[in-house]
Amino acid sequence: MNDTEALRILLVEDHPLVRLTTSDLLNDLGHTVEEAADAQSAIAFVETGAPIDILITDIGLPDIRGTLLAAECRRRLPELRIIFISGNDAAGADDIPNDPLHRFLEKPFMTSDLQRTLSELAAPPPPLS
Questions:
Q1: Virtual torsion, Cα 37, 20, 116, 64, nearest 10 deg
Q2: Rounded distance, CA 65 to CA 95, Å?
Q3: Residue 95 DSSP symbol
Q4: pLDDT band at 124 (very low <50, low <70, confident <90, very high)
Q5: Is 98 helix (H, G, I), strand (E, B) or coil?
Q6: What are residue 98's phi and psi, to 5 degrees?
Q7: pTM
Q8: Angle, CA 72 vertex, CA 44 and CA 38 arms, to 5°
Q9: FRET pair for 47, CA 20 to 30 Å: which of 10, 69, 78, 98?
């Protein structure tokens, strides 16, 4: 069961099977998913102006690193929340800027880990004191 309101997610993953299974999982959790196989396709989608709540990107994309893709997307969408994923480049997590709107998940991840991470990012920020 999903306790997070439906989110609009852009999933960027170069491995077709991983992209398909992650997209299916996100759909099963009640979210709307747009898929991209590379950073160029993801940037083209962002440039359409379609609403996106969360970017989920592999760190080790073939055309540019996921961290650079995220920076480019944040330039256009400053409030974009980002989940970086990686299986064979977990050391790349060190490249992720320290930001409360960023999270990292190591592949393979459990459904519960993904759902928890989405819930954390979807939660409203705490009030300023």
A1: -10
A2: 10
A3: G
A4: confident
A5: coil
A6: -70, 110
A7: 0.91
A8: 50
A9: 98
Q: Pick from 20, 65, 17: which is nearest to 38 by CA?
A: 65
Produce one character per residue of 67-91: b if its CB has 16 or more CB atoms within 10 Å, e if not. Answer: bebbeebbeebeebbbbbbbeebee
DSSP 14-68: SSHHHHHHHHHHHHHTT-EEEEESSHHHHHHHHHTT---SEEEEESS-SSS-HHH
Tokens for 6, please give them.
């439906």
Nearest Cα to Cα of residue 57 among 15, 17, 6, 10: 10
pLDDT tens sequence across 31-72: 999 999 999 999 999 999 999 999 999 998 998 999 999 999
- In this structure, what are the phi and psi dihedrals at residue 100, rounded to the nearest 5 degrees? -65, -15
DSSP state of 9: E
